[in-house]
Amino acid sequence: MYGDISAKAAHMLSLPKVSDFFTRLIQRVSPKSYQQAYGEVYVTQKFLENFCGDQVRFLARSFAVPGNHLGQQSHGFRWPYGPVAIITPFNFPLEIPVLQLMGALYMGNKPVLKVDSKVSIVMEQMLRLLHNCGLPVEDVDFINSDGKTMNKLLQEANPRMTLFTGSSRVAEKLAGDLKGKIKLEDAGFDWKILGPDVQQEDYIAWVCDQDAYACSGQKCSAQSLLFIHENWSQTSLISKLKDLAERRKLEDLTVGPVLTFTTDSMLEHVNKLLEIPGSKLLFGGQPLKDHSIPSIYGAIKPTAVYVPLEEIVKGKNYELVTKEIFGPFQIVTDYKSSQLPIVLDALERMHAHLTAAVVSNDPLFLQARFYVTNQVIGNTVNGTTYAGLRARTTGAPQNHWFGPAGDPRGAGIGTPEAIKLVWSCHREIIYDVGPVPNNWEIPPST
Ligand SMILES: NC(=O)c1ccc[n+]([C@@H]2O[C@H](COP(=O)([O-])OP(=O)(O)OC[C@H]3O[C@@H](n4cnc5c(N)ncnc54)[C@H](O)[C@@H]3O)[C@@H](O)[C@H]2O)c1
C-alpha cells in the first residue's frame, strides 16, 4: 500500500502546479530563495519515487540462518517499534518531516508528527496531499503545539521511539526525559578543509559560498568553519568568496531573515570573535538595510571572520569559535602542512559530527593509513563526509545518507539504511518445529 501511496505522491509532486505551490508555501514560512525551496520539493519527490512499487516491502527484507538440527532455523527481521514520535525543526518544513514520516510508516510504525509550529502549515498541506493519494487518515497523528506541550505529550504517551531533529539543547533534554528512547539529528558545526592541491578556484569559491550562505546559513549542514591550506594564499579565493557573498540580496531571498538569532546577537558574536588576537573581519559584519524584518528575527549580510588556527584551539576561545550560529556566518582560518595535526585536534574536539568536506584530489591527503598519522578521513568521524575536488558540506540529496556519526543515538535520513536503522529494530525468531528424533530419551540433568 505504501508503495502505491509513494508512487501517487511522487507523481503529484512532479506536476509543476503542485511543486510550485509547495515551493512558494515553503518560502512563506522559511525564508529562502525559490531555488533552495524548490530543492526541498525536488528531493522529497525523488525520495518518494525511490520507494514506489515493492521497494517498501524490500526495506523489511529478512534473512534466515540454518539451525543445528532438522526443523530449526533462525530468522532475522526488521521489526517496527509501534507507537513512535517525530519532531522536526523550522528550516526544512517539507523535506525532513516527509522523509522521516514516510520512513516511520514504511517500517510499520504509528507516528505522531510535530513540526515546528512556525512552519507546520507546509506539512498540514502535504498530509492532505498524502490522504488524497491513499494514506489512511488513522495512520498518522499530526499535532501543532509548542515545544513544552510536546515535551509533556511525549512524557505522558511514552512512545517506544522518538526521532528528534533540531538543536542540541532540546536533543539533550529529551534524551534525559525519554530515558534514552530517542534518536537524534541535532546541531551541526560543519567544517571544510581545502587541501594543499590548489585547482578550480572559481568552482571551489562558489561551493564555499553556497555551503556557507544559501538559505542564509540556516541548514544544519551549513559550512561553519573553513580551513584553508597555505598554498591557497597565492590565489584570490577570499576575494572571490567576498564577491559571491556580496551578490546575495534580500529581494530574491538569497540572503534573508534569520529565525533563531537576532541581528544584535549575531553582531555581538562577531565582536567577541574580533577580540581574539589576530582575528579580523573578512567581509559582512553589518545589518541588512532597507527592510521590514521584525527585530525578533535577524538580518545580517553574509559574514566571514578570520581567526588564527593557534587561537581557535586555545581552551578559552574554542567554545566561542565553535558555537553554532544558525545564520549567514562562518569562521575562516588557514594552516600549514605541519599544522594538520592541530586542525585534526580541533575537529576531534567538536561535539556535533554531522557533515564535513575535504576538498582535495590528493588521495594521500584524503585517506589515513595507519603509518601516516595526520591524514583526514581516517582521523575524523563526521557521518556525512564529502571528499574530493567537488566536496561540499550541504546539499545532501535523498540518495546520500545524511546524519551524524560517533554517537550511538545518531539517526539518519533519506536512504534505505537510514530508514531501517531509525525506524525498525532487529528481532530474531528461531523456528524449531522438530521433529524430535525417534530414538530420543531423557538425558541426565545438566
Ligand atoms: N541534524 C539534522 O539533520 C538537522 C536538520 C535541521 C536542523 N538541525 C538543527 O536544528 C536547529 C534549528 O532548528 P530549530 O531552531 O527549529 O531547533 P529547536 O531545537 O528549537 O526545535 C526543533 C523542534 O523541537 C521542538 N521542541 C522544542 N523544545 C521541545 C521540547 N522540550 N520537547 C519537544 N519538542 C521541542 C520545536 O518546537 C521544533 O519543532 C539547529 O541547531 C540545526 O543544526 C539539525
Provide a quick synopsis of the model.
With about 450 residues, the protein is an alpha/beta fold. About 35% of the residues lie in helices and about 20% in strands. A hairpin with a 5-residue loop joins β1 and β2.
What characteristics describe this protein?
alpha/beta, Aldehyde Dehydrogenase, Chain A, domain 1, Aldehyde Dehydrogenase, Chain A, domain 2, 2 domains, binds nicotinamide-adenine-dinucleotide
- Put simply, the count of helices is 16
Number of strands: 15
Cross-sheet strand order for the largest sheet: 10-11-12-9-8-13-14
Report how far apart the termini are: 51 Å
Largest sheet: 7 strands, mixed
What's the architecture of the largest domain in CATH terms?
Answer: 3-Layer(aba) Sandwich
Count of domain modules = 2
Class by SSE composition: alpha/beta
Mean pLDDT: 95
CA-atom Rg in angstroms: 24 Å
Strand content: 15-25%
What characteristic shape results from the CA principal axes? globular
CATH topology type of the largest domain:
Aldehyde Dehydrogenase, Chain A, domain 2
